[in-house]
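General statements about sequence and structure are easier to judge against a single worked case. In the encoding step, the backbone of a single protein was reduced to a row of integers, each denoting a local shape. The record that follows shows the chain in one-letter code together with its fold in token form.
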Amino acid sequence: MPFPIEISNLSFEKNLHDLSEGCTIKIWRDEDFKLQATIEGYIENAKSLSNPGKEEGYGNFAVEDIITGYVKGDGKKYSLSGCIIGSYNLQGVTYPGYGMPFSAELHLSSITYEPEMKDSEETQVEQNWYISSSTRILYPGGTKRFDDNGLQRLRSGVDPERDTSDIVPISMSRDFFKIEVPGAQCIVSIVPKEIGLSWASCFCIEYRSAWGPFPKKEVKEAIEDLISFLYGAQFIYVGTTKFSENEIVEQRAVSPSVINVKHKCQNGTRPPIQFNNQFDWGKIECLINTLLPVYLEKMDSLNLSGILWRYFQAIDIAIGVNLPALSSALEKLANNYLKAGNVNYATYMDGEQFSDLIGDELKIIEEKFSSLPYKDVMIRKMKSAYQRGSNEKMDFFFSLLELQRSKVEKKDLQKRNSMAHGGSDAESMAEVKKLILHTRAYETLFHRVFLRILGYTGYYIDYYHDGSVSKHIDSPSGPIMTEHKCLYYKKR
């Protein structure tokens, strides 16, 4: 979508501020790729701009509006969603018949262009666009491009073959792979740098009606989430383009939902696996086609999307402070896994049965403790002795997954408890280094668990060793143990 855009002839779905259709909106993307907009014009009642537009019964949540308008000159119609009036300025002079001039910030979540369509036109190709950090991936699919904007191209094994002997391609590259899971067929490609962003890697996930019905929204989101996890960096959705017979039938630009987008896209990646072309477990196309069916099968019962959201939030937080957040993702995954398997992990036995067994003895103990200052606390602990502790729950979870943990990984849990309850602030460099190691080991532990949940049986990167060592999924993170088979990769 070409920015900046200026639209007028506005119409409002709710128009909480009594704005006129004669106002003008200017829209652009800022340096963080977020949508920014201003609205200006005349207003008869300046006080209406102060209308807070709060939802009744919902505290301070503002009411969002939908605004439609047309681009000056070419008449293209756009729809703006999630619109909220921000700070504003008044000129202070009222013009008869017009009102008072004003300008204001306009917060919005997306802008959509929908050209006039014939009834017979249907979407044949849907391209969803993302920005992220750069990950070293060996793509299997080759693409020939025949024009500077990359729109005229031929993807080997995907696009229909045609005679291009009289056309000289301007570039050839390996830049995509295909997902061929039933109900979720698409191609994932990297956008060439010359038509992308200088500070981020740009990606496209493309669906075609020729491959079957377009997947449901939750399936598309599952594909995004799994790719984000495997790439080691969150795919940030920024828009969609839909085509019918090479004509655009819808174009949508979205403001990124995360903060510090530019920094996030320049912050590097930590993929769980060392991608390579030697083994199936390291080939991205083979890997995702193997893991995605399992992910789709388990995504609802284990709330995998919510788990990954917690994980990506955690890795953006400062070292050390993020340990409790990381552990919340892992512990939530453990809870969901045990609950989905109908495993009783909370107690050793039924609570009522336990009370019946110790009832008489407890009365005697209560009588003996009657003069003690902390009798209530001690009695309460005795009454709850049939319940498992959180550490026991995690031990049980790992035993079900048949995943060994090293001393380093077990210490991570202790460090997590320390940080959650006001532990070390890492005032010395030695403490900082220890926190970094604990954090990297905990991230690696999360990788191992998540991969195991998806049935992965290959090798993972142990970030306790700065990402240069790969180990078998059964081998725990930490110092190299000779009894476990490992593969080593030199830094590149």
